[in-house]
Design goal:
13 helices, about 10% strand, about 375 residues, three-stranded antiparallel beta sheet, globular
Length: about 375
């Protein structure tokens, strides 16, 4: 008599994707993680939107792909952790300042320019708590650093001006740079989680709303029609106007990051500033400004100068085009955000295309578009004023 076959036990995945219904009809993605008898949840700040148009349907598809990529990475991280890979037993004793020095060196090796602010952060952290170890960094430490930075720290100025506390904008920039360095530590498995990512909006530094400089559609056409002294700067800047990448992501962009999916070219990158994976469908206008493709590992804009040089070239180029605006490379990102809202893209779609973690950041572009509408209406009113 043949013995019955034993059923093969099905291994359960340690990470499952789940969604939570929100009041506005969208769904918030989160990961249900179960390891060593303990359950935890990771909310991804990625959303599935009601599919009211083809654009939203395409964005939902890209969001699902991003979620699956994050899930796969978490499974790899868990597996590596069980096997004792990468993370050393002494990681908690590593000094934060030593990691920051290593992070600066890594950025320099990658060819990242304009690291002055990051180097200032290393000095500031040394002044705050030079003996801080990676194992000491938690939410309490993050809140203490923010409080000290805003209320105690006074930089030494060499220009003869009175020493005073940092502005909210400058303090927020330093915290952002430190948070990016800690994100890199998480990826290197030297830190379990970045505590700055756990802070609520009320706990973060209130950065004053700045006047974002951007190009109108007509001004973009003027820039296109005008020669630039550096063709690579022109290509990179206009490409960013149509996809919204920061200059740090442009420097790191390789041909392997441009992929064909369902008959459409997509950009798949992890943003340097926030470590957020984003998937951007590339328009024909964006593709038109890509240089000739080389091999997958080559940088797309390999000849791009340092950021200060790029900004100087932009200034001359804009002046030649007859545009009286102070342009930096970052205005291309503002241009993209404003364009999306101008053509009618919804707030959540624009938020995900730009890789914002908080939709309130994206709302700034909606306000810009609204203010332009008000200006237009007021202009019509003035035309009919009684004289």
């Amino acid at each position: 008599m043949t013995s019955p076959k034993k059923k093969t036990a099905k291994l359960k995945e340690p990470v499952r994707v789940r969604t939570k219904k929100l009041a506005d009809g969208s769904e918030s993605f989160y990961l249900d993680i179960y390891v060593n008898g303990k359950r935890s949840y990771e909310f991804l700040k990625l959303y599935l939107l009601p599919e009211v148009s083809a654009k939203v349907k395409e964005q939902n598809r890209a969001t699902r792909a991003a979620v699956e990529a994050i899930k796969s990475q978490r499974i790899i991280d868990i597996t590596n952790g069980k096997a004792g890979i990468k993370r050393t037993s002494g990681w908690q004793r590593l000094l934060l300042t030593d990691w920051l020095d290593r992070h600066v060196a890594n950025q320099e090796r990658k060819g990242i320019r304009n690291l002055g602010t990051l180097k200032s952060v290393v000095r500031i952290v040394s002044a705050y708590a030079k003996k801080t170890r990676m194992g000491d960094i938690d939410k309490k430490w993050a809140l203490g650093f923010i409080d000290w930075l805003q209320n105690t720290y006074i930089p030494v100025r060499s220009n003869g001006k009175d020493n005073k506390h940092l502005s909210s904008g400058t303090a927020a920039t330093y915290v952002s740079q430190l948070s990016a360095a800690l994100n890199a530590a998480v990826r290197a498995e030297l830190l379990g989680e970045n505590p700055f990512m756990l802070l609520s909006s009320s706990e973060k530094i209130k950065k004053p709303e700045s006047q974002r400089q951007f190009l109108s559609i007509e001004e973009i056409k003027m820039m296109i029609a005008t020669e630039c002294s550096n063709p690579t700067v022109k290509q990179a800047y206009l490409f960013s106007c149509y996809c919204g990448l920061r200059i740090s992501d442009i420097y790191a962009l390789r041909w392997k990051d441009v992929r064909m999916n369902d008959g459409r070219y997509m950009l798949s990158v992890v943003m340097k500033k926030t470590s957020t994976p984003i998937y951007i469908p590339l328009s024909a206008n964006a593709l038109a400004w890509l240089p000739e493709r080389i091999d997958d590992e080559s940088r797309i804009f390999a000849g791009l100068p340092t950021e200060p040089t790029v900004n100087r070239i932009l200034g001359v180029w804009a002046k030649s085009a007859g545009i009286d605006k102070h342009l930096t490379f970052h205005t291309s990102r503002h241009t993209f955000g404003t364009l999306m809202m101008t053509v009618g893209a919804d707030l959540y779609t624009t938020c995900k295309l730009m890789g914002h973690s908080d939709v309130r950041t994206t709302q700034i572009y909606a306000k810009i578009v609204d203010s332009k509408k008000i200006e237009a209406v007021n202009l019509v009113d003035r035309m009919f004023e009684k004289r």
